[in-house]
Amino acid sequence: MTQSDPIWNDIAMAYATASARAPGLHERFRAAGFDPAAILSLDDLSRLPVLKKETLLALQRADPPFGGFLAADRARVERIYVSPGPIFEPSLPGGGGHGLDVMFRAAGVGSGDIVLNTWSYHLVPAGLLFDEAARAVGACVIPGGVGNRELQAQVIVETGVSAIAASTAFFMALADTVIETYGRGAWRVRHAFLGGEMGDWMSKRRRIEADYGVKTWACYATADLGLVGYEDGQGEGYVVHPDRVVQICDPLSGAPLPAGETGEVVVTTRHADWPMIRFGTGDSAFALESSTDSRVLRLSALQGRVGAAVKVREIFVYPRVIEEVVIASPGVSAAQAVVERIDGRDTVSLALVLSPGADPVAAQAQAAEAFVRSARIRADTVNVIDALPEDAPLLVNHKD
Question: What would the mean pLDDT of 172-187 be, rounded to a whole number?
C-alpha cells in the first residue's frame, strides 16, 4: 500500500463530511487537533486518539441517543440497536447485514439454501443482521429465535434447512433433537454459523464437524461496526472486511503495536454515516497478515477482552493462550493457568486435565511447548490434576 491508495482518499472525504454533520465527532476532532481531510496514510489516521466504548457511552448519556456522532439524516435510521451499557447504535440503509453477507458468500451459501436463524431479534442486532445478510446472498431465512427446540427440529427436517445460525450450545441441542427424533438420515444440514464461547471452542468445533457432518463458520462482528472479519476457509483467523481499517494497538496508549504483538483491536469504518473512526473494541488479538503500511489484513482469533489479560514478566497473557494449549496438546481435555507473584517474581503454574489413557509425560511436554509458543514466556510448572470445575476460568490472577 502507498499513500495514493484510494482508501485514504475515501476515508478523508467521508470523515471531513461527517465532521460537519455530527457535532460529537467534530468536537472529538477539535479536542485532538485532528484534521480528517489531511488523512493520507495509516500514520496520519493513527494520530487520532482511540475512542473507547466507555467514552462513547458517557457521550451518549450526555447527549442521547447517539452522543452527537450520527452523521446521517435522523430520518434515515431504520432501527436502533441496544448493546450493554446501554449503548445505542443506529441501523442505516445499505443492506448485507452490515457486511455479514461477505461471510455467507465465503461459505458458499446462497440461492437455494434455507437458513434457520436462531439469534435473537430483540434489541441486539444479531438476529436481524444474520437475516439481512442471508437474504442478501439469495438464501431463504426461517426466523427461529431461541427455544421451541422440538418445533425447530421439525422445521429443520420438513423444510430442508441447509444452514443454521446459532450459539454453539443451541446448535448442538437442535442437532441432537433432530437425530434422536427423526434419525440421522433426516439430518441434512451442511453449514453451521456459530457464536463463540469461552473455553476450548475450536476443539469443540472440530468435534461438531465430525459428529454432525457440517462445516462450521464464525466471524468477528460488533453492533457498533458490523462485520469486522470473517473466516474464508483458506487460513487461520479472520479476513478483515475490505471496508474496515483494523489496527492492533497498545490498550493504554493507543499506539499501533509491532507485527505479531497482541493488543486491542482498533477499527475505522470506511463509510462515515455512523462514524466509528479509531474505535477501540475492547477485544484483543494479533495480526496474522498485514499490508505494507501495517493495516491488518487477517486477524487472529480473539485472545479475550483487554481487561481479562494478566501481565506476566512484562508480557500480557490472555485467556486464549490457554485454549491454544488445549488445542495443541493431544490428550489434554482442559487446562488452567494461575499467575502469582512469589519472592518478587511473576510465576505461572499450568494445570492440565487429561483424557482417559493419555500419556502424562508427553502431555506435559506438549503443553509446556504450546504455552511458550502462544504466550512467549515459559510456564514455571506444568502439573496434571484430576479435574477442574466446569465453569473454571482459563486464567487466574493471584498477583494482586
Answer: 97
